[in-house]
Design brief:
It is a single chain. The protein is an alpha/beta fold. It has two domains: about 10-100 and about 295-490, Zn peptidases (Aminopeptidase), CATH 3.40.630; about 110-165 and about 200-290, Glucose Oxidase, domain 1 (3-Layer(bba) Sandwich), CATH 3.50.30.30. The chain has 13 helices and 15 strands. The strands form two sheets. Strands 3-2-9-5-6-7-8-4 form an eight-stranded mixed β-sheet, with helices on one face. A seven-stranded mixed β-sheet has the order 1-10-12-11-13-15-14, sandwiched between helices. Helix 8 crosses helix 13.
Amino acid sequence: MKTMRLPAILLSAALAAAGGLHVLRAQQPTPLEKDPNADADERIIAEVRDHNEIMANLEYLSDMIGQRLTGSENLKKANDWTRQRFADYALAKAHLESWTITHGWTRGTASGRIVSPAEHPLTLASYAWAPGTNGKVRGPVVYVKASNQQELDAYKGKLNGAIVITGEPLLLPTPDEPAPSPLSIAEGDSILLVRPQRPAERNPLAPAGPGGMRFFQARTEFFKAEGVAATLSDSGKPDGLLNMTGVGGHDFHIGPIPSAFITSENYNLIWRLLKRGPVEVELEITNAFTDQPVEVYNTVAELPGATKPDEVVVLGAHLDSWDLGTGTTDNGTGSMVVLEAARALQKSGLRPARTIRFILFSGEEEGLVGSRAYVAAHKDELPKISAAIAHDTGTGRVLTLSLMRNYQDQEIMANVMAPLHSLGLVELSQRWMTGTDHASFEQAGVPGFFFIQEPAQYFQTHHTQADTFDQTREDGLVQGAQVMAAVAYNIAQLPELLPRKPAPPPTETPGP
């Protein structure tokens, strides 16, 4: 059954009416003061509309290359292929820039079952960079409820050989519950790049609040010292989908103990059984690590600036993915939007004043590691990067651009976006989100922006075995490439670099 969709303008108008937002029309010049970028933007929009290669490129990346775990052979294949695509499109300086991870990781097999009080199969997937179980392990399920070290110490001597869970089942949206719009979040609040959670939800392997990560690490080491056989986590996804993240951290270390996600249905079953009495589970997980560090790469190309080639606008997305599906919407879509923006800008024959650089980062899923490596390697260039913009929430249409509280750029960026009102955008946002690669630039003082998009089931399927080419919506990706290319061109044409945030006031040093 074909789902009816509102045209872009009607959709934006509906969102505006619902959320108090305005369709992007402000600050347009009068007919006698036609925006100097309007004609160029129309050429870019038409080039993407009439000649784009987004879906062909995305299908190849998804189906012919597939998952692109950081450090894997598939990611290197994707690096080489995207470098060649940039070269095919006549972009300049198409090349790979390397950085290194401590250990590569390869997924093996994972199987399990509830042994008693009744036998049930379990569907599970190991966390990335977690070790295997070294054969079958069987043990009682123990719920460890602890949010600090004192509470954790109460379990000393009680966990040897146990299969540990650390949280209540996550609350999933009901089938008739509408997906929250990212535009419904209060202005200035944060957007988390995870599935929007209902109030009762909490990721059991990521304790919240100050010191949460430190406690998580201490808890994992405690489990290892106590002889825990494995931990199981609720995937927090509907319809039997699994979830994925890693336990190796930014340094890609080997995790202390076997850890796996199970489906929400399995997790709820274990929880119900625990209320009746003891539960015993059997697991077998096999994974492999490299003995030596592994070189990984970011793919880079650029459209040289005509008059200010040493000043740069960065368009980015992450090419790496988790490995249960094919990484199509997280983030093959963003990567192919960047590739298409590059193709369209080059094909249009436009030559922006500043260089527009296209970067497909790796290591994003493990903590923005590839973009951080890029920023560190190019620290001397940062003062001449006007902005870095990321596309990383799937296949939905771009609704607006978040300026990440770069209030000093609000008026300038309103003018940059004004010629693009035909693409159905709403007013600029200042919402905060640090879960993708623009944040690495933002933290280094470069204005870092990201696109807020229609959810389009992104949070239901990202990181799962359902993140495949079947999830894509061509209209959203075409519109995203149009917005990304035109915004980059307009920023590149500004008289000056975008202003930076004011420096924080100096901290007073106490006197003697």
